[in-house]
Structures are given as structure tokens and as C-alpha cells.
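Exercise: predict the structure of this protein bound to potassium ion.
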Amino acid sequence: MKVYTAAQMRAHEQMAVDAGTSFEQLMENAGGAAAADLLRRHPEPARALVVCGKGNNGGDGLVMARLLQAEGWRCDVVFVLGSELSPLAETNRRRLLNLAGISFIGAQALPGQLAQQRYDVLIEGIFGTGFAGRLPAAVADCCRLLNASDGLKVALDMPTGLNGDTGDVDADVFRAELTYTFGAYKPAHIMDAGRAVCGEIVCLDIGIQ
Ligand SMILES: NC(=O)C1=CN([C@@H]2O[C@H](COP(=O)(O)OP(=O)(O)OC[C@H]3O[C@@H](n4cnc5c(N)ncnc54)[C@H](O)[C@@H]3O)[C@@H](O)[C@H]2O)[C@H](O)CC1
Ligand SMILES: [K+]
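Solution:
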């Protein structure tokens, strides 16, 4: 079992890029592998909420949204940390523009939306390996809302509020039923406190050593 810290992930990602792939392709591989697994579990078109932060963790969610909508899913996308995204997340946001089945909803509209719309799947891409410190209040509020909602709760790489390196868990951590992690497990995935908030953990190959 491969277990990599955030710094080790960055090093292996860089090695893969030096060997000829690109960061964009790695993100496509991550979102693609997660979407493929979800589609195996949920072969019928369904309705998903994709909750993104501003970094590449959200970018993985945006790739998933594109691939799920291509299979007939309806995906609502929300950015909870503003609209200034990492370059790769922005590239993948643009790829969603004008696609059938994709709607963008404002973060302030999320509580009302969750009250009136039932989602089959909630995909959480707020923070991944780039997270350090405390959860911003807006993210803690969002996680509380998601935790209280119906639908399969899916975390990308790790549930937001879980520090992948240390296993520290915020009180308002996203409580996932299924966690897709990319390239390798992270230290928190094999700690009891971390495992308690990840649900089933599926480690997906994204083409790094
Ligand atoms: N490593 C790989 O091989 C791949 C990783 N992928 C995915 O990308 C994320 C890591 O993305 P990154 O952009 O580095 O970080 P995050 O998305 O987790 O968010 C970083 C973003 O958030 C800010 N931030 C961090 N802590 C806080 C805080 N306490 N409060 C407020 N804001 C915070 C930070 O400054 C950044 O702006 C990885 O997990 C994978 O999901 C690839 O897509 C595939 C290859
Ligand atoms: K996440």
C-alpha cells in the first residue's frame, strides 16, 4: 500500500510531469477515475451537487461533473471559496460552460437549494492535499449543511476538515461515506480518526509512481 504525504504527492506528480505527462492530464485522470467508479455504482443517470473550493481538489470535481453530464447526469456546481480558481480548476470550469445538465449555483443560494432539491450524490472537492490550518467559517457552515443532507456523500482525496498529513479532524469535517483518493493513500487514511470520517476509501490510479 502506497502512503504519501502532501509533499511526497507533489514530488511524485512532478516526476510524472517530468516523464512526459502534464498536471492537466493528472487532473483529468483523477476526475476520470472517480467518475468511472461512481458510474459503475450508479449506472442510471442521477443528480449530483459538486461543491468546489478554489484549488485543484475542486478541479477534480469539475472534471467529474463534465464526465457525469456526458452520461446524462444533472450536476449543480457551487464554489464556496469565491470565483478566483487555480489555473487548472479554471480551465475545467470553462469546459462546463453551456453544457447540458450543468448549472452553477451561488454559494449564498446553497442552503435554500439543499432545502428544496434532493441530490443523489454530494461530491465534495473543497480542500485536498493543499489544506492547512483551520476551516474557514464559510466552509464549516457548508460542511454542516452537507452533512445534514440526504444523498451519497463522496469526498475527493480526503474529506474537507481532515488534514491528510496529520490526521487532525475539525469538528465540522465533511462526513463522507465514500472517499476517492488519488495516486496513493494519505497518512490520515490509515489513522483511526481519519478513517472514521472517510467511509469506504478507494485509491485510484492517476498515472504517478
Ligand atoms: N498531487 C497530485 O498528483 C494531484 C492532485 N490533484 C488534486 O489536487 C489536490 C490538491 O490541490 P491544491 O490546489 O494543491 O490544494 P487544494 O485544492 O486542497 O486547496 C488549496 C487552496 O486552498 C487554500 N487553503 C489551504 N488551507 C486553507 C485554509 N485553512 N483556509 C483557507 N484557504 C486555505 C490554499 O491557499 C489553496 O488556494 C489534491 O488533493 C487532488 O485532489 C490533481 O487533480 C491530480 C494530481
Ligand atoms: K475534499
